[in-house]
Queue: 2 jobs
Job 1
Amino acid sequence: MKNFPLLLCLLTVIYLPLSMANDYVNLAVTITDADGNKVENGVVIFTPTFNLETPPPSPLEPAIMNQINKQFAPHVLVVHAGTEVSFPNADNLFHHVYSFSPAKQFEVKLYKEFTAEPLLFEQAGIVDIGCNIHDWMLGYIVVADSPFFLKTDADGNAQIDLAKGEYEVRFWHPSAAKAKAFDSDSIVIDSDKSLSLTLDKVVPANDSFDDGFGDY
Amino acid sequence: MVKSIKALLLGIVLISKGVLADTTLLVRSSVVTPRENTGFQQNGVSHQRFSGNGIQLSQAVLTSDIQLSNSWQLSGVVNGYEDGEQHLGISQLFVKYRPLVAHSIKPEVKIGAFYPAISAENTDIGWLARDFISNSAINSWIGEELRIGGVEASLRRNGRQHRSDWSWKLIGSVFKGNDSTGTLLSWRGFALHDRQSLYNERINFAPIPWVVDESELAAPPWTEPFREIDSRLGFYLAAHLAYQRKSELRYYYYDNRADNTQLDIDRIYAWHTKFHSFTLRHFISPALSVYGQALIGDTLMGDYVVYNDFYSAYIAASYQRAQSRFSARIDWYQVIDRDEISEDPNDSRGEAFTLNYTKTLSTHLNVSAEWQINRGRQANLLFFQDTQDYSERLLQFAVTFRY
């Protein structure tokens, strides 16, 4: 984090001409399920149907999928295709992380408190990740074919800055992958706005009773 | 003695705290209220582990899981005890083969000396109970008379990875070296404690006249639970079924297939012991769990010289609030004598109630207080005292250090 001021300057330098080239507006989204419960880890991918004059910059550093207390953190990570993801291990034990998903197949051996070389995620899709030592560990890396995406927090909220224009929208959630959040496949963003989205399905409650119920 | 055990364990920890090993040292010291009768480990009639009072080293456990390669892991548990016939030894030592496979049904093989995963309460390191100092009657017995020296193979399907609420595991095992299992249930009866037997260790019990008399059975007043007597293989089959991570049922059928007509040079008999075990655990909320187990079996020694049915069950609840854990357990147990030898009555039955409070002070230290009453009647106590009845109260205060 000591490079934070530098990072901030860089981002500002990049963002300023960007916002001049495209007229950016802010979109705030709140997602609830069919029962009115707030939906955490809901992912929305916005794919512009127009040509961006200046595409947003690629991330400077790899995204992070950590392992903390025998759980993947975050549970859902969203990255743009072409992003590197780093796998640190904050636990004081061995993890053997793997994926057999078509979008990215890999295995990494993570000795305690160790970070493996970052892996490149090039192909868009949902990558399920697990640990061969701890069966109950499950995480997702959503590899988006667009640089514009959001993921809702515990209150079901998220926001994103988007260039004005029309976007194809897709929703995904790990426990309700086929739920629909939008009435149509596309949306026009022309000014700051807040969207309240209600899914057509109920998202099952979190099953993360992880302590003391492991294999023994 | 205690100092040398601690020094040895600490040395092993320092050596094995490497990158590839997950090693934990646990030391528990207890203050135990005075005992009226001598414990079974000193050939007394009490079902209690400790005979004396005062400060005891109740557990010194060193566990290590060493990753040998991607798929192979070596696990070992070394125990040090102040009481019993052997003060330092191994309770578990096995390798586990757990290959990474793409199929949704995944295999695992264990080879060595280990416990079947039969208990819902012994989920702490080194097969210690998480919520209590002393184990239930069922798992006290398993800790002292049952250990698998063999191979276990399993297939499992984890539901969470396949968007299903249900997970399952099917298990089969063959083993040797568990031929005298059943001896303690018959001649001492069920007991509640946390003393696990070490490999090659002998466990004493009160010298029942007909058992030890040279002109009668002429057997020693001790048993060695993991001794091989008849060269036959035993087996167990098991199934686990879990709903999410909230509820789980485990069924085990165990049969040591011992040849009950065999005995060895020390006049230790092979006991043909078989049982069904049902284990259930359920999280009512992340803070409150209930669990229990039921055991139904029988054991046969000689040509119907000793033939007993045994039953036991317990139900326990545990509630976690901040750094405090409150737990309660009720145990029932019974042994029914079905043979014709009246000089060796094996009937016993009883119940126990246990309350535990544990407070976590840091990641390395916790303190606990446990009160227990265990009462019942046991026919063979009449050889040693005026009544079959017993009522044993135990109050323990323990400090547990783990590193």
Note: Chain B touches chain A at residues 19-20, 22, 65, 67, 70, 98, 100, 102, 106, 117, 119, 122-123, 130, 156, 158, 160-161, 163, 167, 244-246, 248, 281, 283, 286, 289 (CB under 8 Å).
Job 2
Amino acid sequence: MRVAVIGAGLGGLLAATALAGQGQRVTVFEALPYHGGRFTNIEYRGYQLSTGALHLIPHGATGPLGAMLKRLGVKVQIVRTSPPGLFRFGGKNYTHNQLQDLFGSWNKVRLVKLTADLRYSSGGDEPYLEWVRKRISHKKVFDLANSFCRWALSLDANEVSSREVVSITKNVDRFGAPGVPIGGCRAVVDGLVEALKRQGGTIHYQTPVEGITVEDGSVKGVSTPEGELEFEAVVSNIGPKATASLCEKGTFTREYMHGLSSLKAAEGIKISFSSDTPLVGHTCTFFTPEAERVGGLVELTHIDPSLAPKGRHLLMSHQKLYGNNIEREIEEGIEDLRSIFPGFDEHCEILMVQCYRSHWPVNRVASGTHLGPETPVKGLYNVGDGIKPQGFMETDGVAAGVELMLEKFNKDMRGV
Amino acid sequence: MILIDKERCVGCGHCVPFCPVEALSVWGVVKVDHGLCIGCLTCTEYCPNKALRWDEG
């Protein structure tokens, strides 16, 4: 079967490589001159910065992305962070187990109950912050909840359901803590492109898909600057809204289009900075619950020193974007970094401040909204950060969404 | 010179490493050092949001 994949981002490359491995004839169309989208490296003054995602995979080598890369024969080393997380309170770092030292005896008991509920209950529709408040009403716990949600989801704890956060927690227990791909994001996408080519797939760079042809409810092909090309299936990695806009008006019901327009993206700011001295001392997720904006940061060079020039450390912080005053949000983020690390101005240099918003967000569909890969058009599927199953965040969510697409694709094939 | 469409530029930084004379930097949005820019237009091809364009003026 001839399959077109629109977009050579992480989701598109995973889908393309997996489908080519099944014997499909896969052609990837990428509008830009390079592959990887928001998941590759930016080389800048000797540092390996990134186009979007941090050089961090939520569940390391053993999560959905790690497992899929292994299955597809992509050789990339993913090293687990240790300890998995540190939490900064009052200028001191706490491991997960040490957090209870911050609370009095009654609240310690409540905290144990909260932790147990995160592991063994199933959560519900109510916002995670409300769910937490019912179990323990303490500012430090609210700050922890917000710090995690801002870091991992670019959302506040009152913008995501408790069901989602409980599912994520269970997946952390099941699949493990984050890992750093050696060589950064680019090592992953370069490996995927190699594997895709080995399987006979091709990539056309600087070839934007301008339209998807649909006849009698089924995909017939795509139009590109190279002309009209016939395909039996199309997998789109450009987001569900952009995918729909490539089809002729009237292809989808008003209800479907309304559903798409109500989807909200998650927006954020990443500050990449360097330091001449270790600030964290480990490559762990360093949560910053007391910060105004920054949810957390990582000092990546303890696992992969090649990401920075010799003697320097590379750090990346992430914050949720509030409102439209970008300049102010950046200033707030930098202020946070100054107050977290008193020697910031002396030891650190800001390399790049990247913003992910509007049509180029952190996640095209915010976590907790679970849109399937299927569309009302036969043979047309979505992948990417708009399609993340419940409990799967960031790039592991992308991989888990691609697995869903493959399941659906193969089921539809058998039905033909 | 190279003009930045502030409506389209989100400040993702994709263009920066492709500039052969290091005239681009990112601080929320892209900034062009017009003293360094040689007008090669490479950046216009690497922008995922078509936010960079050449203006004869």
Note: The radius of gyration of chain A is 22 Å.
